[in-house]
Prior knowledge:
The protein is of the alpha+beta class. 45% of the residues lie in helices and 17% in strands. Helix 5 packs across helix 6. The longest helix has 46 residues, at 351-396.
Amino acid sequence: MTNNIKVPNVSDKTYFILNREAYDRERLDDLMKSGKPIQTEKNSYWYVEKIKRDNDTGLDAVVVSQGKKTKDGKWVKSDNPENVVVAFAGTDPKSQFFQDVIDADGGNVVMGIDPKKKEHYIVEKDAKDTSKTLGKYNGTPTQDSMLSTGNYKLITKTSQIGQADDLVREVKQKYKGTSTVISTTGHSLGGAEAEYSAVNNNVYAVAFNSPSIVHLHSEEQQKKINNGEYDRSIKSIINPDDMVGAGWWNEYDRHNGTTIYTKDPELSNAVREARMQGDVFQQIGQNAGYFFQTAILGMPDTHWVGSNNFTFDENGNVQNIEGDELVYDKNLKAMLPAEVASGSGAIKVTPEVAKQLAQKVNAIINDLRTMKREAENAYQEHDAAINDLKYDTYRQVGRGLYDQLSLEDVNNTLNDLAQSFDKKGNPLFYDVDAEAAYIASLQDTISDLEEISGYLGQIAKDFKSKDEMLARWLKL
């Protein structure tokens, strides 16, 4: 795992409940004042440590710490909590339309504007609370006149996604050197903020129906993400029917870490393909209509952090919303048990999982074998192409535009262009050693995967034989 990111002992269900709580501003304010905890599960209590909001940018976050149980059975706030979670609320189109929908969703997430880009705001000179300013500085005569009085000043702010990153860094610094594990969570836009700050600060994250924001990271971080370096530390739990979480247009290539679909996406992908039929204008209309119907009107609701989109087993692991025992790991393209997908406790392998993984590995092996055959056939195809080139060129030598050209000139040109020569001395336009190394590398990979596939197949057989043996013993 990248930089040994600590995995917290916090269930998917707890993160889910904290996401719902993050939207209830009035309740959070009351909990902050009263000191009462949030109960997420039977033995899981969380205390509000800090509320961070910015009316200018739309940032809406809460920092909660895990309570501890005293000897007399009471739950209290801990000075050294086992876990601290930073939860981010998502888009609020009613009260923060321009901040959330236009600037963050439209500007950062969709258009890819750098979240760390700074903008100037006007505040009173002695203002202590800068979460609400007089507005962005646009260089108007009125604003310049205000500044010239000396009663006002300019401050800078990044986007709310950039502020989320700063908040997590601040929390991480507070608990530096302690055993406390920091993690982030969020829904929708809040999930994007949770994933973005998790990568930048090397902490664990669980997001719900979050858009992909891989493109907002630096090129170096994008390489790490695409190489799967955050797959074990960042988890995006997505309803595949949801356009925000699964993809506005085409399906997202990936999220920052592992993408877990709450059901088999086969039907969802078929519906998506149907929306992509026709010309561009028809596609726009069909996709816009589906988004408005589901994400805005909620008919059906595919987006909200509700029980219709996310359910959990008795251990708090995310479940399949259609009742199936397995959820879908998009990265592995396989249906897996909830505890395996969630990474909670020991990984429990079932015959179904072993078979599916073996099938996935075999599919990769077949692709590699095809690549190897094509590489091995490249010489014959190259030789035929060179012979055709020579034949066509030889026919034109000494005539027309090529009346000054000789056969020796043609052969010398081919030799000059060649990188290697075959045993007969014929020119080749590629590096023979590089080709051999490439084919050998493919064969090594194929051999390794064949061995892995064999192990997986044997696991499935062993499970079946042990089950049959147990049944005979119990006379079932």
